[in-house]
Amino acid sequence: MVRFDRVSKRYPSGNEALSGVSFELARGEMAFLTGHSGAGKSTLLKLMMRMEVPTRGEVIVDGSNLSRLREGLVPYHRRKVGVVFQNHQLLFDRSVFENVALPLLIAGTSLKETGRRVRAALDKVGLLGKEKLNPIQLSGGEQQRIGIARAVVNKPALLIADEPTGNLDPELSAEIMNLFSQFQQVGVTVLIATHDIALVERMNKRRLILQDGQMIEGHQFNSGASHV
Ligand SMILES: Nc1ncnc2c1ncn2[C@@H]1O[C@H](COP(=O)(O)OP(=O)(O)OP(=O)(O)O)[C@@H](O)[C@H]1O
């Protein structure tokens, strides 16, 4: 589903955020991406969304080589990728329903289909019945669930998350990670960048580790916890 082949990313400022990164994620696989602050995690996710392009190497997502993707096809690519952020980027002057419906509105989905899909997405994250509320009336954990519902409302083949539990307590964090596992169980490929090593260890999933822009792939620490 995802293949990075010797990918390097140097920002115009001269920062080499990623150097020669290669890995593959199979369809329906779930993995965690860890590494110290500045190791390149967000950059790697941005390359998958085609928000950045590699300086060298190839990023292939669902059969498309993203470096060669024509600009006009970028929106179609983005629809295949659901994205969840730490600060969930919700619109607080809109209802829960409107927040989740946003990607469908942009895609021009009919009103009837939008209603059906939004309710299905809210049901999956356990928020059915709260669609008329404003996100501000919900807890931090519930707000993150709205962000997840919005990310999956398009039924993306790939779900990526950047620090999705950053502001949550351990119990809520575990619930959110279990929610991601449920999407994996129905065939979605999931990649989650996180600093929460304790949680990653409990989840027993594949782990990709970045260190100074280079990837150490595997489940175990390479040389102790100081790198992560
Ligand atoms: N738009 C940008 N322009 C220039 N340099 C950038 C840009 N984005 C990231 N960088 C640099 O690239 C390196 C990797 O950053 P990145 O945000 O990918 O790391 P990260 O592992 O996600 O860090 P964190 O855990 O703190 O979010 C850092 O040195 C950062 O300063």
TrEMBL record:
InterPro entries: AAA+_ATPase (IPR003593), ABC_transporter-like_ATP-bd (IPR003439), ABC_transporter-like_CS (IPR017871), ABC_transpr_LolD-like (IPR015854), Cell_div_FtsE (IPR005286), P-loop_NTPase (IPR027417). Part of the ABC transporter FtsEX involved in cellular division. Important for assembly or stability of the septal ring. Homodimer. Forms a membrane-associated complex with FtsX. This is Cell division ATP-binding protein FtsE. One of its GO terms (molecular function) is transmembrane transporter activity. It is a peripheral membrane protein. It comes from the Bacteria. GO terms for cellular component: plasma membrane. Belongs to the ABC transporter superfamily. Residues 2-228 form the ABC transporter domain. The keyword Iron-sulfur does not apply. It is found in: Cell inner membrane; Cell membrane. The keyword ATP-binding applies. Keywords: ATP-binding, Cell cycle, Cell division, Cell membrane, Membrane, Nucleotide-binding. One of its GO terms (biological process) is cell division.
